[in-house]
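Hi there, hope your week has been kind to you so far. Do you reckon you could talk me through the fold, stretch by stretch? I've dropped the whole record in just underneath, so have a look:
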Amino acid sequence: MLAVVERAGAELSGDWVIDEELPLPERLAANFGRMLDHALGPSDAWRIYRRARSAGQPEIDEVVTRYAERVIASVALNHLLTADPPPLAHIALTGFVAYAEAALDEARTTRASREQVMQLLSDTLVATVRAADRR
């Protein structure tokens, strides 16, 4: 079971676009586009990860947390130019990841377009980073 969760986490968090040569909006579009592909399917990796997130088993929680931290570090690198965000920014990004996962699951059951969902996530992330960075 751990190997399955490891693979799902790797599939979801791998290939995160952090190339500083690309403008931030392009990186956001690429990263959210990949997540939308997984969530709207939903892909097997998405289903496994979401179920593992709520498993409540220490070994599985450890794997899920490691991959969530990989995403948080990548987002921080894109927005704060560090993979090790300060504590308040880490709290904000952890909350954003949980929000984004719930929003992506909800998007499957609504009539919102892919573009609307992507814009909502992008705007929310930028506002989250801005709020944490002001503190």
Notes: The chain has one domain: 2-14+23-134. Residues 19 and 27 are 8 Å apart (CA to CA). Residues 58-80 form the longest helix (23 residues). The mean pLDDT is 95.
